[in-house]
Amino acid sequence: MSLDNHWFTEPVEQTGTAFSLKLGERVHAEATPYQKIEIYRTETFGYLMTIDGCTMVSTRDNFLYHEMMSHPVLNSHPNPRDVVIVGGGDCGTLREVLKHPEVKTATQVEIDERVTRLSEQYFPELCVANGDPRATLFFGDGIAWMKEATPESLDLIIIDSTDPVGPAEGLFGRKFYLDCVQALRPGGLLIQQSESPLLHLPLITEMHKFMREAGFAQTRLLHFPQVIYPSGWWSGSIAQKTAGPLAERLDPAMIDALGAQFYNADTHRAAFALPTFVKKALGI
Ligand code: SAM
Known about the structure:
Layout: E1 2-3, E2 7-12, E3 17-31, E4 36-42, E5 47-51, E6 54-58, H1 62-68, H2 71-74, E7 82-87, H3 92-97, E8 105-110, H4 113-122, E9 135-139, H5 142-147, E10 154-160, H6 174-183, E11 184-193, H7 201-214, E12 218-225, E13 233-240, H8 252-258, H9 265-271, H10 276-282
Bound molecules: S-adenosylmethionine.
């Protein structure tokens, strides 16, 4: 990360890309036992949170990611009662999940409590559902939590983690996926943020391979814009415990009630429509 007087820049050596936002100023920085968290006030994107120099969430564009990492997969399950979010410390995904009345429990397993406390301070709009009686905020390692999860106790797992390095690295491997398969009920679904289809296709194909080797019957990819992440084009990898078509609960009144800015029946369907090069790489 380089920081001159007026710009925040996240250079990514591996992909030869960079992303910048015009500043304001850096308003907070701290090193937790897990990572370095910084908060910037930007000129046009509101606040920006970074973790270890990587963009995480901005006031202006987080709706793209939080809506598309929650609503498509929730509406692809016939009755998602019990949901776990691994990571997601900014609480934006939790807020979207709890907009679904069919959800009875939503447990967020975030390793670093400081992410949530800083989100409460700088992104309070993402934390408005934290007090929902259905919500549980658990602070600990998602890998350990899933190992101890009661078999067949979950309908949906959302892995909203940082990139596959540091504490998040183990969230992208077979062993973790094995524990996820066991924790899911028949018909259960998992979605994991799976980086950029343009820049990270080898990682995505490896994730799908590991998911299937761990016992998931079928995998799919959905994609959506996400401005502050490398390439501005992001993805979620979906794994199904049971093979077959996904449900498609797209009742117009239900969708309107979500009050989403990006998600609707059209963007739901479009998210699953894959480019040729991605289909070929995934063999689907
Ligand atoms: N939307 C962001 C993205 O795609 O990069 C991620 C949002 S959220 C800030 C990512 C969270 O994953 C961080 O708060 C981080 O602390 C958490 N995390 C990383 N590894 C974890 C683990 N093993 N268990 C639980 N949370 C973890």
